[in-house]
Amino acid sequence: MHPYRSHTCGQLRACDVSSPVRLSGWIHRKRDHGQLLFIDLRDHYGITQVVVDTRSPAFSLLTHVKQESVVTVTGKVHQRSAATLNKGLETGEIELHVIDAKVLSESDVLPILVHNDQDFPEDLRLRYRFLDLRREKMHRNIVLRSQVIASLRQRMMAQGFLEYQTPILGAASPEGARDFLVPSRLHPGRFYALPQAPQQFKQLLMVAGFDRYFQIAPCFRDEDARADRSPGEFYQLDFEMSFATQEDIFATIEPVLHGVFTEFSGSRSVAPLPFLRIPFEEAMLKYGTDKPDLRNPLHIADVTEAYRNSKLYIFARAIEEGATVRAIPALGAAIQPRGWFDRLNAWAKDQGVGGLGYIVFEHGKAGGPLVKHLDSDRLNQIRAITGIKDGDVVFFICDKPDKAAFFAGRVRTRLCDELGLLEKDVFRFCWITDFPLYERDPGSGIIRFSHNPFSMPRGGIEALNSQDPLTIKALQYDLVCNGVELSSGAIRNHQPDIMYRAFEIAGYSRADVEAHFGGILRAFRFGAPPHGGAAPGVDRIVMLLAGALTVREVIPFPLNQQAQDLLMEAPVAVRPEQLRVLRIRTET
């Protein structure tokens, strides 16, 4: 018999009764019944109940060994009685009666418990991540991550994509988030940058003629933590296609993601193909965000004209000065008590907004604090635009367009939560398209790129030369699922003249472009195919499928929110001689 195990702890069944067996694993739980000691023995594959009685020489040894110690037990498989069957375990029909046992590694007293889902402070969980990962939910999440990545690979290869690796040490980028810099020993005073994404390299692969590339790519960005992004590093399904339109990109990646979500969704449903397409401007109007959660049934509407020149002078004056009025419906909210409206109004004021005006439509009449300022024609106009019915309430935000859209989106989310309207157990996808190529910096007033500077402008060079930059749309798109941005992508700008002009509008000289993007520009001069792609985030995909609240729950060894590795105690100070070799001095 093998020195450690003849079977795993998730393998034994009723057909193994009377078989001699050896198992190794961690002591998950112990229950001392006096003459009998029951142990749940756990390994990667499952749990088997182990029984030791006082006649066994192993009884004393196993009685005193602590939970989470690693042991090997040898014995015979017995059928459990009908009264003791455990249908919650795959091995619940049997138990192992121990003849011999050996302790392979004894555990100290545990800083966090493994055998239950009790909450512990995140810093403690990350410091003892190896224990945290033994817990059933965390173990399941990491296994799911591996299975999702394997499924993504298989589905991409089935569509003719080949996996290529791109460099980790590259050049810093003037666009995007802050780079992680790596000093060069051979070139003092110069630095590599870890890739924020394999953007330029995957485009160069298209120029080199590889046609369909993908990679489960590590990316590095020196940015603050968010629930849907771990600080420092993340992984994405990076892919690129030659001779592809925007619709080709959608048609390629939609079945991959739909298939993965269907495969791992369990009892949850997945919205059918094709995914909904929503232009950016429509998304900002209807949902107040470019990451809409389509499980929320509430749609925002623009009712500015209903308030223009009305007797609600605070709105009417603001409209004349360029403000807009957004209406957010609250379905079925007419039954709510006055205190509910007061709490929402107080919440709005806490967010820095003057308050939330509202109208209640009930029993064929309109009520609420704004009604006295509006005649019947204006009320009917509001009802027609918003589509609300008797028993509904509509709230209003009046502000400059960007601020009104943003806060209306927050109100929409708040109302959905308050009224319990969020659709359950479903994954709803949408593409957000037609992003603006440029935006105006609110502080300096300078025109800058809105998102990806490598995106092809709609209309090409003609649009760049003839249109107001703020009206130019990019062939750029985001994929959103349940309010989480899963992917950004674009049809790329592959023509040098268009690239020079696009960057010139954003304030970059020809010399700047050549200094920062000389490699890819040089490649484009030797015949570049039209190409595009996207990069769905692996961490976020697994987070959604696992039902986790943050990506840290689906990453084996994440940094904390202060970008620290509490387990390995990184970042660390380095020895002075290491800095001398790199010709670096630190401030003291």
In words, what does this structure look like?
With 588 residues, the chain is an alpha+beta fold. A hairpin with a 2-residue loop joins strand 15 and strand 16. It has an 8-stranded mixed β-sheet with strand order 6-9-10-24-23-22-19-12. The longest helix is centred in the N-terminal third of the chain and has 23 residues, at 136-158. It is built from 17 helices and 24 strands. The radius of gyration is 30 Å and the shape is globular.
Reconstruct the topology from this structure.
Blueprint: E1 20-32, E2 36-43, E3 46-53, H1 58-64, E4 70-79, E5 94-105, H2 122-127, H3 129-132, H4 136-158, E6 162-163, E7 181-183, E8 191-193, H5 199-207, E9 212-221, E10 232-242, H6 246-264, E11 269-270, E12 276-279, H7 280-286, E13 301-302, H8 304-307, H9 313-320, E14 324-330, H10 338-350, E15 357-362, E16 365-367, H11 376-386, E17 393-399, H12 401-419, E18 426-427, E19 429-433, E20 438-440, E21 447-449, H13 460-466, E22 476-481, E23 484-491, H14 496-505, H15 510-524, E24 531-534, H16 538-546, H17 576-582
Parallel strand pairs: 3-5, 6-9, 11-18, 12-19
Antiparallel strand pairs: 1-2, 1-4, 2-3, 4-5, 7-8, 9-10, 10-24, 13-14, 14-17, 15-16, 15-17, 19-22, 20-21, 22-23, 23-24
